[in-house]
Amino acid sequence: xxxxxxxxxxFLKAVGLGAAALxxxxxxxxxxxxxxxxxxxxxxxLSPYLYMQFAEPLGTTDGxxxxxxxxxxxxxxxxxxxxxxxxxxxxxxxxxxxxSYYRWKEGVGPxxxxxxxxxxxxxxxxxxxxxxxxxxxxxRRTGAEPLLSVNFESDGxxxxxxxxxxxxxxxxxxxxxxxxxxxxxxxxxxxxxxxVDKPYNVRLWQIGNETSYDRRGFDLETAAKKTLDFAKxxxxxxxxxxxxxxxxxxxxxRMIEVAGEHLRxxxxxxxxxxxxxxxxxxxxGTEYRKDPARTWxxxxxxxxxxxAKIRRxxxxxxxxxxxxxxxxxxxxxxxxxxxxxxxxxxxxxxxARLLNVNERHGDVLKIAxxxxxxxxRWQVNAIMIPVPGGQSYMMPxxxxxxxxxxxxxxxxxxxxxxxxxxDVTASRTADRIYLHVVNTSRTRSVTARLLVDGMNITSGRIxxxxxxxxxxxxxxxxxxxxxxxxxLPPGGNWSFPPASVSAVELDIGRA
Length: 511
What we know:
There is one protein chain. By secondary structure, the chain is of the alpha/beta class. 27% of the residues lie in helices and 26% in strands. It is built from 13 helices and 24 strands. It has helices at 3-15, 29-32, 64-68, 78-87, 132-142, 173-184, 189-193, 220-237, 252-259, 292-300, 302-317, 345-360, 396-406, and strands at 35-45, 53-55, 69-70, 75-76, 91-94, 117-118, 125-126, 145-150, 204-207, 242-246, 265-272, 324-331, 365-368, 372-375, 381-384, 393-394, 411-417, 422-429, 432-439, 446-452, 455-466, 484-487, 493-496, 500-510. The strands form five sheets. It has a nine-stranded mixed beta sheet. An eight-stranded parallel beta sheet has the order 2-5-8-9-10-11-12-13. A three-stranded mixed beta sheet has the order 14-15-16. Mean pLDDT is 92; it is low at 1-32.
């Protein structure tokens, strides 16, 4: 047995890739070889919300929402709208920590009468020129559904409940219910007075944001009881809305016991650095440029860290009927706040592996993201916005998300066998099989013979992204890594280039 296979088997054992939830069972070495074999039996439905995005005004830390808005013409920047259409997120969430001191009424009505607010976490002043109407309009223009996070009494954090000047920033169940009515009640007088006759019909709402992460905020029992109060008030206004309650840090089971009758999902977040405890990590500052091979190996570790977090959350909701919503995820590395190592194609490949992890847990994980949505320099942005001018472009994480979004089936199916170095997930819609294939080798192509159990492959297409792992996606050259469509030859043999991410579509018929 080679050292590579020994190491790989230890890795599989460590992260549990042999578990039923992942369905990557390996056949014997004698039979596996270059075989990539799929069992086409549908297993569970994959949610389109696995490719959501998350928008939050990040103040002085990043231009974020403000950079996407054209203040001279009072509209969204067209280049941001167009690149978002290419990204095609099915869902965009408004608010994160920002929601803990956001008063939604300050962001509606005539813009010249809107009240600016101090951005208590991220610094600076938020002018509220982008509010409920503008955010929902952006979602509609780009084909996404909106998800709104309500002010959950500042999540119990006193330092966000009022400003140093005495401005009250906390809001209770009544204000959340009024926001639901503003958005969804066809006859809402306030919205109609603002010139919007038709309701926005916002279906998804989150109660609580990272509530368990700060001991200065609510404890579990208080948060659970207040979640119940918020949920009752909001659903009294509109019983059809779908609510997301906060459940990270061991809170999920108790939250469901107290408020689960009103909740559709349990939320958690994952902001992580796979090398957090590695003293000489290359994933720090500009160290990644010194040893590309070592950097690649460390980036590939991210999948195991991500996997472990989701498994911990699965354990919390085991046996319960409420699925998980990872409404924020930040593959975040120490640097100069400028997307340095995460702008490399190597990071794009690493992010594709994280997407594969999400898919394997798609029986329980129904909402997920991998990045903040847009901005000017934040480490985990999906879309970068050049200022003062220039065309917005997708970062590597967005490139792989856009690829997967367009080539994913309705139901997960099992991968029975695969060659070493290929990380593969599979799904199906009708008579079409979809594969997401990541070649985790930085320097070596991997050839595979594609088979679907009991079926003939009548045709196949490969949508391939490959590039130099060291290539950095920057404004002056943002489009070097692009999708190339190719046809699968007869016999089903295909060579996946090194450091590549591919979506494969196979049309099948009965053998």
